[in-house]
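Lab notebook, bench 4. We co-purified these components, and the gel suggests they stay together. Before we commit to crystallization screens, I want a quick structural picture of the whole thing.
Request: model the full complex, all chains together.
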Amino acid sequence: MELLWLIVLGTLVVGYFALAGFDYGTGLLLPFRGRDETLHRMTPFFLGNEVWLVAAIGVLFAAFPRLEGELLSGAHSTFTLILAGLVLFMAAVQLRLWSWLVFTGALMVSVGWGLFLAHLLHAPVAVALVMPVLFALHGWVFQTRRWALFPLTALLCALPIPLAFSSIDVAGLMAHTDTLGLLAWVAVPIIPLVVLLQWSIVSISSR
Amino acid sequence: MSPSDLARVQFATTTSFHFLFVLLTLGLVTLLVITQTRFTLTRAPVHERMTRFWGRIYVINYALGIATGIVMEFQFGLDWSGLATYAGDVFGAPLALETLIAFFLESTFLGLWIFGWGRLNRWVHLALLYLTALTAYASAFWIMAANGFLQHPVGYRVEGNVLRLEDFSALLGNPTFGTALVHVVFASLTVGGVFLTGVSAYHFIKRTPEVDFFRRSLRLGVVTTALVTPSLVGAGFAQFPIIEELQPGKFAHAPGTALGFMILIGMTLMAVSWLTLPLLIKDAVIRMRFPLYLMVIGIPLPFLAAILGWVFREVGRQPWLIYGLLRTEDAVSQVDSSQILLSLIVFSSLFVVLACVDWALIARAVRRGPDVTPAPVSPLVVTL
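Here is the predicted assembly.
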């Protein structure tokens, strides 16, 4: 049961960074590319990408209740930066008015995740720059449609934070098996279903 | 202010803003189900145009509401880590079910509905809207189940210094859950009904050429409001004996003015919508013109009432976070006041901006009216 929930959480976190990574990358590259076409390419993916984060935090709360609070409150201001960036980024992409606002939002989110990575690894703050660089690279691969490279940059974006996580011993931080057993019936079928449906959104919109 | 006071202010601010978006989302999606079902059955263009116009507003509101929802979800871990540590096993279950069953699926069905417009079989497309609405209701269901647990904890056992899940079904049979859920659902339907009425009235004030379109919308709004407000008020009063029994201090403790104003607004909306019903005959209400202005002014009222009701429910629970088990001050994270103050300032100002943006985008969509040559309102909405 413990392993199952690590896999569920891992899948959601990896899904979030692999997908939302190119959103943020797109935002970071926006000042250097044609605005309309660049945003247009991201459109069918946008809503679907960000919701992976919501699902991941939901699972973190229910399955790892004693980890969630420590983790988030331990990096309070970093998450303030990430969330403020997210709100700005999502609103700015909706508005399509100012590219610099999309860029600023994406930069805040990426630097925020970088700072969180540095926090997890107890590494110097400069490590924070890793995430914006990886996101930008992923965004560039997505925008220039170099699909052969896509899985590689997706992995590069997705892995740093889960790997840094693996240093945490989760035994004792997880919920009781009664709770985990109940939730497993829901979590296990829903993730593949959402992947399938999100895939259909993309294939429909490119028709 | 102490960290716990700041965290409370922040939670109240975040939840209130989030609630505004949620109310309109739930209300509009239900009315969209009606218009699109009519379109699918009759194929009459007016129903398709109605679905498109109100759907555009719905999607704008949904897409911006997500941003408040994300912050909302992080709040628990950021400011209230004591809640997860102590009760995460029980309280976390409905919360996780909400994110997985409801939100994760809802946004995906909605995405398919948006991008499937004109590209999917019309029955499949209708089914997607039903699924979106169903998962939206599931969201309200699980959130209220989680909140019901905070009001009156059930289905748990104490093990050491944490709570464990003993009986999940007790959470769903919680007396502080069912009636409150019905109340919230009818509140959002009222928001939807009053919104449709007000926006349609605005177009009649502006002498719209789209008479048939807004006549139908206005009727749908007024009839919806009249049908749902009695149940809304009923489900509100039905909670009084439950509160008296389970949370005896609540009426003394909670801000009575909030409750009073909420009841006043609910009663007024019920009375006015029933008085308007006979005036729908031969469009008397539109020709009188004067009531149209009241309809526009009325748009914020159900939003205000819902916030007041929520304030009563939550403030009345104090000083407990989980009634009788966990005090609010004991649940707050070990964080400096300055950090909470920073996040409070940042999020509050962003939410004000977000609410204004939502209002501006909706107002723009409303002013443009039903027929829009594809002009990008937002990347998601352009396809509608």
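The radius of gyration of chain B is 22 Å. Worth comparing against the SEC data before the next meeting. Chain B has a mean pLDDT of 90.
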